Amino acid sequence: SRSSDELYAYLTRSRPDLCILKGEEEEEGEADREEEEFVLIKGMPQASKPRRGLGESTDILEASHVRELSKELPPRTIGHSWTLAYSTSRHGASLKTLYRKLSASDSPVLIVIKDALDEIFGAFLSHPLRPSETFYGTGETFLFMLHPRYKCFRWTGENSFFIKGDLDSFAIGGGSGHFGLWVDENLYLGRSSPCFTFNNCCLSETDDFRIMDLEAWTFS
């Protein structure tokens, strides 16, 4: 619509620090265009590779990924901008650094991983990732695959093994000794297995995978 075009033009001129994701009209029907929304994404202004629709804010996410994930996020994230709180390319591959970057926020967290096979997957966490003696979090937490195929895995109600942070690894989802997503302290080696919490398939092509990039997004 004219009003959304004017807003897009104004924000592009006046706020170059924000990446403005605008729906592509040629790929959407009339009904979709009427409900078009803006997602404001704050992140690295210069350091990362450009991505179509996302400016220079991310090394992993495409505009289509953001649109798909936005449909799955809980209502309390609506209207909040996406802020890149941590990335391995910018802050180094360290679980302790990841914990530190998330420690000042009580926002939900989106963990996005790109592995050595260029597959993209991750988890939405209802609470910030932190060291913990037991599992914590709520049923808002879910696992997802973004590329080469898109799929979300919601809480089954079977258990409450949502989020677990240790000094040497973190895990999302569990049951019978299997984690839906597990990552080591160097944010380099990971593992994904079917688990009772989300009834997910393996998120990566193989159970064990190598991480090329990992990003953590908060909603502010």
Automatic annotation (TrEMBL):
Cross-referenced Pfam families: TLD
Source species, domain of life: Eukaryota
A GO biological-process term: regulation of transcription by RNA polymerase II
Segments forming domain TLDc: 59-220
InterPro entries, per the entry: TLDc_dom
Signal peptide: none
GO cellular component, one term: nucleus
Protein name, as recorded: TLDc domain-containing protein
Native source organism of the sequence: Tetraodon nigroviridis
Source species taxonomy: Eukaryota, Metazoa, Chordata, Craniata, Vertebrata
